[in-house]
Design brief:
The protein is of the alpha/beta class. Helix content is 32%, strand content 18%. It has helices spanning 38-57, 78-85, 117-124, 155-162, 170-183, 200-215, 220-223, 242-253, and strands spanning 2-3, 28-33, 65-70, 90-94, 101-104, 107-112, 131-134, 190-193, 231-234, 255-256, 261-263, 268-271.
Amino acid sequence: MEHLKASTLNILPAHIQVPVYKLSDVSVGAAHIGATSNFGAANIMPFFDSALNEQARRGQPLTMGVVAIKTTGGPVPPVLRHRAQQDGLYTVVGKNGQDEVRVIGAVREVMNYSEDRNAVIERLADPKIKIITITATQAGYVLNKSGNGIDEAKPGVLNDMQNPWMPVTVPGILVAALATREKRGVEAPIIMSCDNLEANGRALGNVLNQYAEATGICSPSYMATVKTPSTVVDRITPGQNFEANQQMLAQRHGVVDLGGLVAEAYSKWVVEQKEGVVDVR
């Protein structure tokens, strides 16, 4: 029985779907805020994986790799360290252990904001990053009770208003990255909330614009170019027992994966279409 890693992909059982692209050829063109989110790993990352597969089939450059960013405090959890030891690979399988079994290779880097804030903002300001997705839960957007703007009473928001280049909240980090891009003449990325918020794109856009206005580090003209389309992401991803997942994958599918995920088979990602926004479905 083989441990999951790049060198064993070609000898996994035939029913397991594996990337058709070469991992070493992948460049990072997207960032995902929410590296510890099982929902993001089980639903959003497979779509980027599909994009890479399609690029490989067409003979195109592999530009849809993802850097996953942890913005909450503390060290990187064990499951992310396990996946790093597996060349960033992990398996997603149906809830009953018998549905589609698929190895995901889209996540090429993991960064921890609490360990190196400047490096994360620099990465988000990289011109190669064209798309930023977010699974930060509702709390991550520091919304007020009405849901139409920032809650200025939250300690994190107060910090960011006073120290906009050393932010601690997700919106603060994004605005610092956008301001860095503006200074360097880099166009804004598409930023997509994938969380279960009403009109999540509008809510995200409101928060980012209020942050930029309050801190003054990013101009209104540049913020007007930032696209935040609303999205609907649908895939039930229950709480994970990674030890049980490991045993199931080994017993039923013949693969040793320390970072595998169980989710429902059905998956859908719908992105609002706006002028200048790429359809990533």
